TrEMBL record:
The keyword Hydrolase applies. Gene3D superfamilies: Immunoglobulins (2.60.40.10), SGNH hydrolase (3.40.50.1110). GO terms for molecular function: hydrolase activity, hydrolyzing O-glycosyl compounds; sialate O-acetylesterase activity. SUPFAM superfamilies: Galactose-binding domain-like, SGNH hydrolase. GO terms for biological process: carbohydrate metabolic process. It holds the Pfam family SASA. This is Sialate O-acetylesterase domain-containing protein. It comes from Spirosoma radiotolerans. Residues 96-198, 411-518 form the Sialate O-acetylesterase domain. The keyword Hydrolase applies. Keywords: Hydrolase.
Amino acid sequence: MTSLLTFQTAFADVRLPNVFGSHMVLQRRKPVPVWGWAEAGEKVTVTLNNQTKTTKAGKDGKWRVTLDAMEAGGPYQLLVKGKRNTVTFDDVLAGEVWICSGQSNMEWPLAAAANAKTEIPVANYPNIRQLLVKKDISLTPKDNIEGSWSVCTPASAPQFTAVGYFFAKQLQKELNVPIGLINTSWGGTHSETWTSREAMNQNDELRLVANKLPAGSEEVIQRGAARTQALIKAQQGSLPTAADEQTWASATLNDSEWKTMNMPGDWEWGGLPTLDGVVWFRQDVVIPEGSNSQKMVLYMDSVADNDSTFVNGQLLGSTKGGKARAYAVPDGLLKPGRNVIAIRVTDTGGSGGLMGRPEQLKLASDNLTIPLAGKWKYRVANVFASSYKPGPNTFATQLFNAMINPLIPYAVEGAIWYQGESNAGRAYQYRKTFPLMIQDWRQHWGYDFPFLFVQLASYNAANGDSQHGSTWAELREAQTMTLQLPNTGMAITSDIGERTDIHPKNKLDVGNRLAAEAMRVAYGKSGEPGNEVSRGPQFNKMTVENNRAILTFLNVGSGLVAKDKYGYVRGFDVAGADQKFYYAKAEIQGNTVVVHADSVAVPVAVRYGWADDNGDVNLYNQENFPAIPFRTDTWKGITEAARFGEQ
């Protein structure tokens, strides 16, 4: 009886979803929906800033009021009163609210950004707030999230999205109003998992995927087990016996049939999606004749989660957790010629593998350094049952259901988005799926809010270039094409990526470039007088004169410029009718760029920044915004046939 009474009392209490809370920011100049649950038919009164609205909960216990639009201000107190209780939220501000979403480069915290040490101690911005949405997945739409609002202080700032923090800081400088960030992001995720089932049913290709979504958790586990078993069979046939595994540390083991993946990195993206368990990594290391291999130390920046590390079959040590490792190698263990490092890694959930900075994975002493980042052989020794549970990409719609749907219809000004790395293999399809997701969110909110996104930075994903094709270049092209949607903007980051790190640490320029686009798209401004450009040069037209291609651009601002002390323009390739690309010489002439190559008599196509790692690009306008990578041709891409399916 007591349990029943407790349940009835709890059910009768008026309550709100966790998108509302003390320290929140409400959107200025727009009607503000406030909603929640109460006893069926219960009268609910909402009071804020001299406004009072009253409604009754429906038969399903849901209620909603809409507060009148208000100007920036506060702090206010929001009171929600029911029959038995009153919910009170303090320190409520009105200002600008932006959703911050995408994958790891949006999730990336300020604590890990390039200038964290100087930025965090002075991050006293009481009018910048963040709601950090806890990661969650669901096959059906949810109505609540876990998370709470926090005020930006040196104590809380390290957990802010770094891109969002710098974006908010610049916006507040421009607008002088409170800024609220709703940080709902998850590293390594596809755009399809952020898209609703209704939207997927509007697309012929994605409708097939939506129709295959499992009915419940039992079917999810069954599918997960079958998927993992099929993966192991394809990768290596079967799991080893305990006796077999004991031989995997040996230098004499024949590992020629083992698969390879790049380390450091997350094995879920290297060939073992959703796998929790035990994986061995092996690498041959050659010690040059005559080298001094005394007092060598094996360094690893981090491991997810636990390791046992061997050299030539001898155990150096074992460590639990993500901390850095430094294992002393006994003198005499390393020999001139071939040696073998074997690492047994146990992952209990989430990311797995050798993690951290590539330069910190090495054998080193005062006399000798041998880098170990690169290809490692690997083999699975054990699979944990948690592998069968779905990850965020296992099925489409899961993050929309759990991390977007509960936020609707909270009033927002717009969204900033940093994602695409995980869709690069299906870049052509992204031309449809990315705009579909944007329109999906807008339709659910009920208005075409500004949607600003970051184009992929330079990163050597697979040595892609103009001649051999580049998945990353094709994804950037799909992002550029998405600018055809109204109220969109894009920040170019080709010039601030890192060749060997998919997570560039410079988030300051990313945030500032998004803020410049926000001033143009959302606030009808594009900078101070004399600096009215918020984006870089965009290819407009090509004409050919003899062996030269002449390119014109939009958004040239005060004029084109090359960031090079000698004035060289880099990043251009040119091809003739044979579709063979050659590095082009380029020259700025007024507001045009003239390109040519000695090997191309009649230019047919020009490409700029068309590579996975396109960090050599250096064309800007004088307002310091980089040019958008482009191609003038429509020749067949390498991702045209790739389609989304269950991972």
